[in-house]
Design brief:
mainly alpha; 250 residues
Length: 250
Amino acid sequence: MAILCFSGLVLLIGGEIASASGADPKQVPFLVAVKQLHRWLFMIPENPRGGLSVGRIITAVTTMCMTIVLLTGVVAWWPKSKKMLKNRLTVSTDKGFRRFVYDTHVSLGIYAFVFLFIIALTGPVFSFKWYKQGMSRLFGQETEQKEMKMEMKKDDAKQTATKEDAFAGGNAEQMKEQAQKHDGASQDMKKDGQDKKSGGKKLFKKLHTGKWGGWFSMILHAIAVLIGGFLPISGYYMWWKRNYGKKAKA
């Protein structure tokens, strides 16, 4: 989780810096390497666009686990009173390092929850087709694609019938004209389908990268990702102190 958050932060900031300087982020070797780490843990599949690799599976499953961890974290740390809420949302700096880590883990996790949850929820879209289909249905993308396919089938049936009629009448020019119209209609519908598909993909990408609300949302997104990178580290630290801290002192 920490690797995914920190590498995602580098991609977000580095991509904006590269674009502002007139460079293509996809052509910057450092950012390319960071993307390979973020997407596949350097285990690039043969088909990067849709193929699977061990690294792609690990990153996707990790983001799924992150969704569960965030939800259970909210349940575990949910305040039961106003006084507890105040303690949950503040960080103590004068009660020792362990208390400081505890407070930052809880309070910053609460502040960043919404952003991190969206990131984790949309992450597997870029790895698993079945997950993407489920999210597309949730966001109303799959229905549009089904309607488009049905329209294409109807159009194909009409054009086929027209071709058969023209052929039966021996009118070669009419058949050729109808074939050209059919090809043009098919290309237009394919283009529309690609636009809808691209629109759905762009939606998930904007939600995942924080670009859905311009520079302001990107700043909040970057802060949340930075917090998200430290949450597993602080969580392990607290777990270690709780289970082995006393034994080490003894």
